[in-house]
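Dear Dr. L.,

I hope this message finds you well. Following up on our conversation about the binding site, I have prepared a predicted three-dimensional model of the protein together with iron/sulfur cluster. For your records, I am including the exact sequence and ligand specification that went into the calculation, followed by the structure tokens. Please feel free to forward this to your student if that is useful.
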Amino acid sequence: MKFYIETYGCQMNVSDSELVSGILLNAGWEQAFAIDDADLILFNTCSVRQHAEDRVLGRIANEKHRKMQNPELKIAVLGCMAQRVGKRLLEKDFGVDFVVGVDQYLQLPELLSQERGMETEFDHFQIYPGLKPVHGDQSCAFVTIMRGCDNFCSYCIVPHVRGRERSVDFEQIVEEVAKCGDNGMKDVTLLGQNVNSYRWGDYNFPRLLLELNKIDSIYRLRFVTSHPKDLSDGLVQAMADCDKVCEHIHLPLQSGSNPVLKAMNRKYTIEHYFGLVEKLRAAIPNISLTTDLIAGFPGETHADFELTLDAMREIRFDYAFCFKYSEREGTAACSFENQVPETERLSRLQEMIDLQREITLEKFSAQVGNEIEVYVESLSKKSVHQVSGKTRDYKIAVLDGDESDIGTLKKARVKSATAGTLIC
Ligand code: 5AD
Ligand code: SF4
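The resulting structure of the complex is given below.
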């Protein structure tokens, strides 16, 4: 029996899909790499915005017809949406046979031996100890170091669907990262909703980085996501001291207005954030900064929104993921009365995107003429004589090369740039 898995949302879901693949392979399933070959289609879903859920429902509706040709075919929904929506996914005529929440993947093989079913119990301690994810044959790896989130930002569904923070055994992480390096995945990203809160015995996140930096088989270490309220001086120092830790940090700002940050329950001010940027830039020259921003949070006035644009101009992020606020049932902000009209959210989002695009283009263009070091990840989509990869500061670069360069570091000179790619 073959399974095919389709993944939506953040890198944590990519990592969870690898975990699920490992669990199913151990249980005797085979992995299908084309949906046509599958006896079981798994959708690993995201709930962070309504749009993400709508897209998956659309995809399931599109694939349901396969059941007419193959009545044995089963469809399973995993991940945050499975956790959030639960049995309603089974009740309605969605064509879904199984619903499995984020803490119940160990039960998956047993559940699949039944006709239909659901497992969405919360297990606040589930960390999948000792399980070996299947990283496939890619050149980069994601390694989960903690799960869950305790922050309860007022807009966010994640703490409601992924439960409380818990960290992975330190030894297990070291072993996993070393194994990735040995298997040709030289660029490793450590994952967690809030990696700065990593704790295992005496080990905090900076100590983990110092330890992983000793692993010879990897070239580069990255991590997501950091919370500005928890970014310590110790972490800034560890980033500066560890030669494998890349000169990049993803530090979600969300808004440039203090009243909005307060209503979002972010627990920092814009002044604190500016201070962090200053510290990071002083300790790590050329560090690139990326962020997440939300347009049209409830109660956000024009003046608040202008403060976010001001912060963007002042900080000049290398890249920003801009989102339109989306109401998530069950979160605090969903019941705030002063919701911003949809058209206004959209126009603010567009303004944000336009401003960031200008800044990103300037940042990328400033690299023209520089020699850069690229970790080659794949063949370029446009030409067989070119390859694509990333710089240490998290910029996509395209350069001359062939398949044999994948998984290696290459030097090249930047000839031109777009707002997303350095062309060498
Ligand atoms: N609406 C819009 N954006 C959201 N995010 C999280 N929840 C919401 C929401 N309800 C964004 C935040 C977060 C990123 C992963 O998704 O910016 O950092
Ligand atoms: Fe959501 Fe805030 Fe936790 Fe990030 S830190 S996952 S935005 S609640």
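In brief: The mean pLDDT is 95.

With kind regards,
A. P.
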